[in-house]
Amino acid sequence: MYCQVIVDIAHENVAKPFTYAVPAGMDLAPGTRVAVPFGPREKEGVVLALTESADFDPKKIRQVSRALEDYPAILPPLLDLAREMADRAHCPLAETLRLMLPAEMRGGRVRAKTVETAELAVSRGEAAEAALQEKRSPKRRRILELLAEESPRTVADIGREVREPREALRALRDRGLIRLTEEETLRTPGAEIRLDNSQWHALTAEQQEVLEEILPALERGDGRFLLHGVTGSGKTEVFLNAVRRTLENGKSAIILVPEIALTPQMVSWFRARFGPVAAVLHSRLSAGERYDEWRRIRRGEARVVIGARSAVFAPAEHLGLIVVDEEHESTYFSDHHPRYDAREVAESRCGREGASLILASATPSILSFARARRGDCMLLEMPRRVADRPMPEVAVVDMRQELESGNRSVLSRELVRELSECLGRGEQAMLLINRRGYHSFVSCRMCGYVVKCSDCDVSMTCHVPEDGDPGKNARLRCHYCGRSAPIPERCPECGSPYIRYFGAGTQKVEAEIRRLFPETVTARMDIDTTGGKDGHARILEEFRSGRARVLIGTQMIAKGLDFPQVTLVGVIAADLTLNLPDYRSRERTFQLLTQVAGRAGRGKRPGKVVIQTYRPEDPVIALAARQDYRAFFEAEFQRRRISLYPPFTILARVLIESPGEAEAEQAAQEMERRIRETLADRPEWRKKVLLMSTEAPGIRFLRGMNRRQILFKLLTGKDTEDFCGYLTEEAETPRDGVQACFEYNPVSMI
Ligand code: ADP
Ligand code: ZN
Ligand code: ZN
């Protein structure tokens, strides 16, 4: 017997499989991880296939050293998925296979956790007797006494009474007095999460109708759905019911959420209804926890997986359902190599494994809604909130008028008034400002110089240490590379002392609220406050418990959170996202505003939303204020059709980076020339190219690298895919001192 093995080598991608002989008696199946000799060393690999014969000299074939697990770590459909992804991304299979395993399984960096216990092998009386005989070793005597009182006991427990008991334990075992056993235990994350909402609600008519479409598809093992339900329409209850049926059918389900911050809430709902059969999988778990959850899923002990995008690769067998909640979120794209879109992966898995797919959102992506309208998937709508709760009332405040009437604060008078009423009634408020830090930039009043990062072409943000004094302890930070610098006392350009601060971030808004409402406890949620394993959960719990009354945060707080006590939502600067130079900035702004507005009035009391903006006349702001998704979609869809943006075309680029500016420029020009030559020979590709131009991107240098891009606008089609494959290879051809990569519809074009 022989097997084909993809060898996993760090930093180096060996694209093709190698043939190894399978020693007699070794039980291997496709997907099993193995150790194999590779050159002078031993490497890990994954078995792709088993064959009866080898196509070259059997004497030269080396043997598999051993199997790393006694089961295939990669299930057959996931092996196929890895192949398909490698084909589509034009990357080596070893890279996509890595996505299917918890990182720490590679190189054996994580082990199963075990608990050692000691148990008497003789009667209690005999043990007590033996203890009396034990004159030479007080340790052995004490252990026997302890076990005579209570047996079995864990070794850790004994260790609390007897220091370093191991040697004594072994001696007692060798004399046949006790038995030592080792048993595996699983580290289960999220045990501290409070279980909410444990009762099944009586479904609303809309939830009922939607489920009547979904449940038969679950029986058949097919169906693609886009569930468009307004904020607070009770989409989660639909998922819970669909998962219940999936479990009853003996199948498993995966629920994807766009941010780790949203996992505790989802886990709490699912554990409350289904118990420990619900597992969590995301990158903030400790290595041991992730490994154990992964194994719980692989063994079928956990059949509901909740997690961020990488959970789409969970080893769930007999998959019946994948739900992608808040499907419009760009976090479903992975920008790391190999790049993937979790929604596409989910669709591919569902097709291959006979499962149903539900994409859900209050503000579906333009792409998904367009597909649903075309009939590629079934549109399900829930236009009303549960229990006849009204949509929140939205007021748009013109910040230019605030300035004119002398209010220079980041908070409008209307928002302050609403806040004090809301807090006066004992309710909660959320404030969104999509920028972290204290001030967004620092500039000289005399010459206009803006302090920029020395390694990146971006202005530095002013941060104050938590509980620091903004006057004294502030420092500048680069949000791209993390570099930190003191605030200059004089302008480095003209020497003037008139250094001023501009633009507010989350820290400034929090300081402002504390100044205006000194009695009120606030919580802040942004990248700076959510570090560590439980950063998110801690802040959200502070707010959920009611201890904190105002939650200030970046877009993190806009998504999917359900806090019934929140009756006021304030958007500090609605224009921030609208001003970004990206064809999606209108879509993102509409989604962000509608989503954050949807956090208000989810409980029994109605909600109010205040949107502050310098552009109240902008149609996107007006449509978001009305929360009119349909009207927004129609307008945006037309705009994209006319301006030839996705989904009508594909935007792609080759991004070129080099420490030297001249090198970056030269490499870009050479590459453009070669691509044009190729296009001259390939008319079928040329026909697909609407635009091709070489330029410096919005950020000209980043992390010390000078950047250039070759931008493409392409028509869709099979030839385009081939052309993109060629561009990938062209970009990845090694060059001295220059890095390049090809990006297909990138999430960010900076
Ligand atoms: P969405 O995700 O659509 O914004 P959620 O699923 O978070 O909405 O539901 C909003 C709130 O309504 C939750 O607190 C949920 O428990 C509650 N809810 C959902 N369905 C029902 C129902 N049928 N009856 C009563 N309350 C419900
Ligand atoms: Zn100056
Ligand atoms: Zn920087």
Descriptive overview:
With about 750 residues, this protein is an alpha/beta fold. The chain folds into six domains: about 1-110, PriA, 3(prime) DNA-binding domain (GIY-YIG endonuclease), CATH 3.40.1440.60; about 115-185, no CATH class; about 205-390, P-loop containing nucleotide triphosphate hydrolases (Rossmann fold); about 395-440 and about 505-640, Rossmann fold (3-Layer(aba) Sandwich); about 440-505, no CATH class; about 650-745, Multidrug efflux transporter AcrB pore domain (Alpha-Beta Plaits). It has 23 helices and 33 strands. A seven-stranded parallel sheet has the order 11-12-10-13-16-9-17, with helices on both faces. It is globular, with a radius of gyration of 30 Å. The model has no long low-confidence stretch (mean pLDDT about 90). The structure holds adenosine-5'-diphosphate and zinc ion (2 copies). One zinc ion binds near residues 453, 455, 456, 480 and 483.
Q: Roughly how much helix do the residues carry, as a percent range?
A: 25-40%
Radius of gyration: 30 Å
Whole-number total of structural domains: 6
Secondary-structure content class: alpha/beta
Bound molecules: adenosine-5'-diphosphate, zinc ion
* Spatial ordering of strands, largest sheet: 11-12-10-13-16-9-17
Note poorly predicted spans: none
- Taken from the alpha-carbon principal axes, the silhouette is globular
Query: CA-to-CA gap between the ends?
Result: 52 Å
Provide the residue-averaged pLDDT.
Answer: 90
Number of strands: 33
- Percent of sequence in beta strands: 15-25%
Q: Give the full name of the CATH homologous superfamily of the largest domain.
A: P-loop containing nucleotide triphosphate hydrolases
